[in-house]
């Protein structure tokens, strides 16, 4: 029985985005979510002590701010309020200094001494042409670009390994370290082809749109998306895991899940070649995450760190390169590169008066059981002596904990699959319509499809557009699909 035009499996940002786009096109949509609340990678909760709200996964949202799809949604009318910290990013170095990513390219460059001109030359043109680049960066790479020249200019640098680009472009420790930290969001060794693209895109978004965080926690983004979907007539069932595609009451199905789960849900309906291709899909390293309830703000030595929503802890380019090499070799780093967010400095609603939270993680081998608590806290103490005395409580999340909360985080992989160059192009499989599957009316729409990980909703939006183009997801009274 086709009760709905479409069913979406999973209420992560991409599932909700897909459902919204279908509902906006007049389709009846049901979202089935396994967990008791919507959000997937956007959930927040009291992980440590009562009154302290922590982001279980995503915390800082440059890609949401940059998302051409999110821009079209009235999310502020549904309770979402963005907060922009004075500085997007600080990267402390020794001697109490810090490299700082500011909203202005010029002001960022001025802080990088001898590398000021090189920084301006690298990022200036990208920021200027961001409005032309964004649809290419936040969409499938396998399609005719709308602005080929701007994309070609970006591609020349973006395809390079980040470590090489940083060494060639910059002479000083600060600029090199700043770029390495940005590129480490690729979760790949920084000698890998294409890792520069992550540094360039994240740096550019810092200038072009900022790195904001939502008041009240990332859950608020999910709640706003869900509220807007309901206002369009969409329906959501939580606590409703899908175990087989056969059980779904629609001919059009969009799956906000990764290839491994899709193989289970589709059973033996998939042709062997496609099945094999999905089995070859590679997951990336996992993450080891800590959340703290703190008695006060983190006592950074470098003053700029107290103004930044995100702090990258890892020291020099060479240290970060060594740290990011480890997970790919099946090792953990003694001095891991740590990504830290400190939301309560800018959003007091998330903790009791005068108290604070912090969120941090480092990359570890996929499925690693290693305990990186001490290694992460050592990196914080290195740049903020006395941090440990402010810890009231901590919550530890291993890759297995993350996957237990959300099966999309396979082995603790937060990006929906490895970001190696091949998988940026063929994600998860090279097909003329990237989101389609060999099953009629069934689409993938998670971060395992283009443009990949991060909270931007573009995978869901583009998958929904593909479904609408292919027959509209509308179910006729006789049960067949039609435009
Ligand atoms: C620790 C961590 C930190 C991160 N930090 C950031 C950050 O700061 N900024 C950023 O932009 N991104 C960040 N991310 C990445 C971001 O959260 C993800 O890229 C994003 O959530 C992917 O969205 P999605 O919709 O594809 O999948 P998900 O958000 O994973 O949602 C998938 C949903 O599907 C549900 N589901 C799975 N299987 C089934 C089933 N069989 N039936 C029904 N429902 C099912 C899951 O429960 C889940 O709710 C982080 C992720 C993690 C884990």
Write structural notes for this entry.
The protein is of the alpha/beta class and 483 residues long. It is built from 17 helices and 18 strands. The protein has helices at residues 13-24, 62-66, 105-110, 116-128, 130-137, 148-158, 162-169, 173-183, 195-208, 219-231, 259-266, 272-280, 317-328, 373-383, 399-405, 421-425, 458-469; strands spanning 6-9, 29-32, 44-45, 54-55, 82-83, 87-92, 98-101, 213-214, 235-237, 252-255, 286-294, 308-313, 338-341, 356-364, 391-397, 442-444, 474-475, 481-482. The chain has a seven-stranded mixed beta sheet, sandwiched between helices. Strand 17 and strand 18 (481-482) form a beta hairpin. The radius of gyration is 22 Å and the shape is globular. The structure holds flavin-adenine dinucleotide (FAD).
From the N-terminal CA to the C-terminal CA, the straight-line distance is 19 Å
Estimate the global geometry from the Cα principal axes.
Answer: globular
Strand-pairing-aware structural class: alpha/beta
Bound molecules: flavin-adenine dinucleotide
The largest sheet, given as strand count, sense and whether it forms a barrel, is: 7 strands, mixed
Compute the number of strand runs: 18
């Amino acid at each position: 029985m086709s009760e709905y035009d479409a069913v979406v499996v999973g209420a992560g940002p991409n599932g909700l985005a897909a459902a919204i786009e279908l509902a906006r096109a007049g389709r009846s949509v049901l979202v089935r979510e396994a967990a008791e609340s919507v959000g997937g990678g956007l959930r927040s909760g009291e992980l440590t002590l009562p009154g302290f709200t922590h982001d279980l996964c995503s915390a800082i949202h440059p890609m949401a701010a940059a998302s051409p799809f999110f821009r079209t949604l009235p999310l502020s009318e549904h309770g979402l309020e963005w907060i922009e910290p004075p500085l997007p990013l600080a990267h402390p170095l020794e001697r109490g200094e810090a490299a700082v990513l500011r909203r202005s390219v010029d002001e960022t460059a001025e802080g990088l001494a001898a590398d000021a001109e090189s920084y301006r030359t690298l990022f200036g043109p990208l920021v200027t042409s961001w409005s032309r680049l964004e649809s290419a960066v936040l969409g499938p790479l396998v399609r005719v670009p709308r602005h080929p020249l701007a994309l070609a200019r970006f591609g020349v640098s973006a395809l390079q390994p980040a470590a090489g680009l940083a060494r060639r472009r910059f002479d000083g420790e600060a600029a090199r370290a700043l770029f390495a930290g940005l590129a480490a969001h690729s979760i790949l060794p920084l000698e890998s082809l294409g890792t520069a693209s992550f540094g360039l895109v994240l740096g550019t978004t810092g200038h072009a749109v900022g790195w904001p965080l939502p008041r009240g926690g990332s859950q608020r983004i999910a709640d706003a998306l869900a509220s807007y979907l309901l206002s369009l007539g969409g329906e959501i069932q939580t606590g409703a895991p899908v175990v087989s595609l056969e059980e779904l009451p629609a001919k059009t199905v969009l799956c906000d899940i990764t290839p491994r789960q899709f193989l289970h849900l589709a059973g033996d309906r998939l042709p062997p070649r496609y099945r094999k291709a999905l089995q070859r899909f590679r997951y990336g390293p996992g993450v080891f995450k800590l959340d703290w309830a703190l008695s006060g703000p983190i006592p950074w030595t470098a003053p700029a760190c107290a103004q930044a929503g995100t702090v990258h802890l890892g020291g020099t380019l060479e240290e970060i390169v060594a740290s990011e090499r480890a997970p790919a070799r099946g090792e953990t780093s003694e001095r891991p590169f740590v990504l830290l967010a400190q939301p309560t400095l800018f959003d007091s609603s998330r903790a009791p008066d005068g108290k604070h939270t912090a969120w941090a993680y480092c990359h570890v081998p996929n499925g690693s059981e290693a305990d990186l608590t001490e290694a992460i806290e050592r990196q914080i103490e290195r740049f903020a002596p006395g941090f440990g005395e402010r810890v009231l409580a901590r919550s530890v999340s291993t890759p297995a904990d993350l996957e237990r909360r959300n099966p999309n985080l396979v082995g603790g992989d937060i990006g929906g699959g490895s970001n190696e160059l091949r998988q940026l192009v063929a994600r998860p499989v090279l097909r003329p319509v990237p989101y389609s599957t060999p099953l009629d009316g069934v689409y993938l729409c998670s971060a395992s499809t283009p443009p990949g990980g991060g909270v931007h909703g573009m995978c869901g939006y583009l998958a929904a557009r593909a479904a609408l183009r292919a027959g509209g997801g509308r179910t006729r009274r006789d049960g067949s699909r039609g435009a």
